[in-house]
Amino acid sequence: MSHRLLQDPGLPVANPTTSYWQTPPNQDVLDIQSPSLPEKRDVVVVGSGITGLSVSWWLTQLSDAVSICVLDARQICSGATGRNGGRINCTAVQDYAKYRKIFGDKSAVQIVRFELAHFNAIYEFAKQAGADILERSEVRSVGAVSAVFSQEKLLELRRMLEDFELAFPDLKGEWKIVERTEAVEVYKIANAHGALVGKAGAAWPYRMVTSVFANLQSKFADRFSLETNTPAIAIDRQGTGDYPYNVVTPRGIIKAKHVVHCTEGHAAHLLPRLRGILVPRRGQITVQNPASGFPKRSNSSWSFLIDDVLDYATQSPTTGHIVIGGGETNGKAEVLGIPSDAEEDILALSHLGGILPAAFGVSQWGHEVESKTRIAASWTGILCNSLDKVPMVGMLTQKLLDRPAGNLESAEWISSGYGGYGMVNAFLCGKNLAHMITSADMDGNESLPEAYYITPERIGMLQSLLKKVLNSRREHARALL
């Protein structure tokens, strides 16, 4: 595994599993290409998920003249954003406890407030993009029920909530602990010992991303282009001219002023010094048909923590399908370093196929509908874990590059390492990047947490930590998880 955690993640594979979210595909942008590549662009964005969309959108909002080209090795939004669980869910109470241990109280508060800002930011963005896009994207507020199946875990949640409310007095009462009786009678999770209940969001991310990209292509045709099936295979910087970067693709070279890496688990392919620091991780998702006794609960989302296995689910308001992912019964370390979404995780798939009736209980779940299989679709996606457990956002400096580094006038930038929580990180990370590139000011809870910035101190710490764990598979995986 140690070798796997350090390997080149390569380009996204050409034959990925089929994601439910991408069916049917958005024909407006599916295999979109210009007749020929633009000769030069102010900004080349590599990757067309929610980060790439956010960077592109906010650049067009901040500048009337900036020219942009978005490259993707496959189709638009064919990576992690188009393969996730459909939740915009900040696990605020648990995240505060986690980040407080790592970074201290101040940074933990910043991170949680940043994550919490995402639902409103995404909702308002989709609304601004158009009422039709908001409706198709199914961006909506839902209840969040984090069920646990032991008294020990329930007690742990209770302690976390007490600490959380001391740190966030303005949010007191937004989350609550429910005991076993209420978990069963109100939330219908028959086998839970209790739960943490709060609010979250859900969406159909692929529809939102592809629809807005199509709008950008139409509105800014003279200075915006989408290039699918056009991987960036090399980048070099030549001199200090207006467009010093050569972004090499199989279709030709684009000269650029700025290059933005929005490729999550594949970022280290073009940035070899980040191998072992930003590491891909494969995740498993399924879509399941509810049984006969299960009512439509599209205003809810769930997570189930059994021992240390976490599963997470939402229900579509239109189809009634339950989207559920997780199932890492062998531990997350077993899927670390896997950059391919062409294969499924059979152990995770087996677990996910049985967790819903096990968690809700036969009394709440009911009997299987004879004409339907339980699992209607399944696929995998590639996440990205960072060695210090938070995203890496900002300008890439010389210590992270094999080629000359840039400056504020012309540089390489990155936002990556969301650890499976891209929907409560990526959109505003992209917005912050766009503001950095244009030297515009950001303020409020949408400002980047200090821990996310690329600083000399952080780079030094990451490189020292990598050197320390380099020869230990177990320690390297532990640092990433």
List keywords for this structure.
alpha/beta, D-Amino Acid Oxidase, Chain A, domain 2, 2 domains, nine-stranded mixed beta sheet, eight-stranded mixed beta sheet, FAD-dep_OxRdtase, FAD dependent oxidoreductase domain-containing protein
Structure, described:
- The protein folds into two domains: 2-83 and 206-279 and 387-480, FAD/NAD(P)-binding domain; 138-204 and 280-382, D-Amino Acid Oxidase, subunit A, domain 2 (D-Amino Acid Oxidase, Chain A, domain 2).
- It has 481 residues and is an alpha/beta fold.
- Strands 3, 4, 5, 6, 11, 12, 13, 14 and 15 form a nine-stranded mixed beta sheet that branches. Strands 1, 2, 7, 8, 9, 10, 16 and 17 form an eight-stranded mixed beta sheet that branches.
- It has helices at 2-6, 50-62, 92-103, 105-129, 131-137, 151-167, 180-185, 205-219, 267-270, 346-360, 362-365, 426-438, 456-469, 473-480; strands spanning 40-46, 68-71, 87-88, 140-148, 176-179, 194-202, 224-227, 234-237, 245-249, 252-261, 278-288, 300-306, 309-315, 322-325, 375-386, 392-395, 412-416.
- The model has no long low-confidence stretch (mean pLDDT 95).
- It is built from 14 helices and 17 strands.
- It is globular, with a radius of gyration of 22 Å.
- Helix 3 (92-103) packs across helix 4 (105-129) and helix 5 (131-137) packs antiparallel against helix 8.
- A hairpin with a 2-residue loop joins strand 12 and strand 13.
